[in-house]
Write a structure and sequence with these properties.
The structure is a homodimer of 345-residue chains.
Chain A (H helix, E strand, L loop, with lengths): L8 H10 L9 E3 L6 E3 L5 E11 L11 H17 L4 E11 L5 H18 L2 E9 L5 E11 L14 E5 L4 H15 L14 H8 L5 H9 L6 E5 L3 H12 L2 E5 L7 H10 L3 H7 L5 E6 L4 H5 L4 E8 L5 E4 L5 E3 L14
Parallel strand pairs in A: 4-5, 9-12
Antiparallel strand pairs in A: 1-2, 3-6, 4-6, 7-10, 7-11, 8-10, 9-11, 12-13
């Protein structure tokens, strides 16, 4: 079944998509339906704002990304930015531009994904814009959240001797993308043949349905740890480490042997004949957290599940380097020490 | 001179465009350069959020819209949404998606317009996203502002007997668009011939460089008037009146003879053989304010410069109607009482 968007019109489509949306958070005073949303944040909180613009053909490929997953991911990557400030996402606005190719049912799918993500993370949809596009789909999401005034974590606070931590594992989302691209190329036009993803489910999930590390932010709070610097890993560990060190005016040493990598990622890199560490350092789209803590927190952080110590911050003149398993030092470059070929992920 | 965007890269382009941006507002605590911007609003204020997504070919045509004007307008229309809540815009985030057709110099122009608008209206640029697009330019702006808790004005508060007011004049932006479209078609391919806009400068200005009615919000505050309902006129007076009446559960009567129309708009409608009132009622993109006040404010509002009384709110069962000069009643329709052919403006 296909209902044309023109049959509803702009206002009809907005009404249809936002039907039944309720505001759950106390800070959401008024949502969709006026010139602006109205929020009320308590005095002891600061307001965090992050925004993202996703373009079809650049950030996502609808030949293998289901619209519901796309909606989920588009929302979650914005939540991730708020967690990366040690904050909590509370509201989003969703703007969509769509070409005639898309039906009302397509938009229902996309919105179902966005609404599911909001439900999982306790975020309200408070506004947005729906408009047409001459080509393809564009999604712009702005996320608003809150953080305790004294506990917001910036990229610039890392200090010499601080420990460098990452959550989860790295490189799997990138491997998932490689896998999807390969299968797309192999099976192009041959509709009878189905791609075989057996044993590679984790990679697909990491690429298609990433999660933001709300759990880690909670654990850090429970353990009374405020990182000295933090950001989420969207462009790859190497690039993000450079951001933290540049903004903190420090150097760093990270150890290849400590970079957390999943078994499926390793198998896939082998299959693709790719350097596994390069994939983990530069892959991007992991949406894990990279953060630093004072050395005094060593004991507490070591026993925290889902967090791995991968190195330490140094004085700036030592530069930023990866120490390989055989003890060699490779300087990190802005795009990673051994950059993958240019990619648009 | 043309500098390719690829020569700077994403981070380089962001650095280049945001160089020298300073935060002027007390509520802007941290701007560009981290995972999220950090804002701090005082307790007695509510936070207002509005967002807009503009797509090339749908919302703007670069054959006749200079990039600097486009940037200015993209920012101002968002400010207008915040004023329409009786608030003050304080911050924006700017996300851009651009195809290879655009150079660094093009983006400088666009950003110069955005920065000029921010300077004029006292708004800080606190974040954004810059990415690539396969086709054309997409601009997504989110505006954050503040309003006094007790003085925020919604669309739903109009009451029977309230007076209906509009600011400025209507239909000129739409006429400006018609003019630009006509000249584009006439001169397509004939590079030697220049379009003649003499005597029509006001129409072009209204289309290409609209302003938000900050001045009126100030005047209302000075006169101690809090409208019972308000919105800005972006889709046309007729459509906006319907929104206010639907949300307020009222009807309305507006009088054709009181609709404010500029002389140039009238001349142009004559030239195009268009019904002038239809243009004024349905034109769109005026970014004037439509608001209602209690009848007790009649004296105060009558003497306010730049504000025109055009009718009054009624009980819901009377419906929404325009009274023509010869005393006939025309029911307002969702898209206006005599809709213009479908347009994408």
């Amino acid at each position: 079944m296909r209902t044309e968007i023109a049959s509803l019109g702009e206002f009809g489509l907005i009404d249809h998509l936002t039907k039944g949306i309720e505001l759950k958070n106390e800070s959401s005073k008024y949502g969709i339906g006026d010139d602006a949303a109205v929020l009320e944040y308590p005095t002891n909180k600061e307001v965090l704002v992050s925004t993202d613009l996703l373009m079809e053909g650049v950030h996502f490929d609808l030949t293998y990304v289901p619209l519901k997953h796309l909606g989920y991911k588009a929302a979650v990557v914005n939540f991730s930015d708020i967690y990366a400030m040690n904050g909590t996402p509370k509201q989003i606005t969703v703007s969509l531009a769509l070409s005639k190719r898309f039906s009302v049912e397509d938009m229902d799918e996309l919105y179902a994904g966005i609404r599911l993500a909001c439900q999982q993370y306790g975020v309200d949809i408070v506004g947005g814009d729906t408009t047409s596009s001459l080509t393809g789909l564009a999604i712009s999401i702005t996320c608003i959240g809150e953080g305790d005034k004294e506990k917001i974590v910036y990229r610039y606070g890392a200090k010499d001797t601080d420990l460098i931590c990452v959550t989860g594992d790295l490189g799997a989302a990138y491997m998932g993308l490689q896998l999807l691209e390969r299968e797309k190329n192999i099976f192009k036009g041959e509709q009878e043949v189905q791609p075989d993803f057996t044993g590679k489910e984790y990679l697909l999930e990491r690429q298609l349905k990433p999660e933001a590390r709300k759990d880690i932010i909670q654990k850090l709070a429970d353990a009374n740890i405020v990182p000295t610097s933090m950001m989420d890993i969207s462009d790859g560990l190497s690039s993000e480490l450079m951001h933290i060190c540049t903004q903190s005016k420090t150097g760093c040493r990270v150890y290849e042997e400590h970079i957390p990598i999943d078994y499926q990622t390793a198998v896939m890199a082998e299959e693709f004949n790719m350097n596994l560490t390069t994939c983990a350092m530069n892959g991007g789209e992991d949406y894990e957290l990279l953060f630093t803590v004072p050395i005094a927190d060593h004991a507490k952080i070591s026993e925290m599940e889902g967090v791995k110590l991968i190195g330490h911050i140094t004085k700036p003149d030592l530069g930023c380097a990866l120490i390989t398993r055989d003890g060699q030092e490779f300087e990190l470059k802005a795009q990673g020490w051994n950059p993958l070929q240019e990619k648009e992920v």
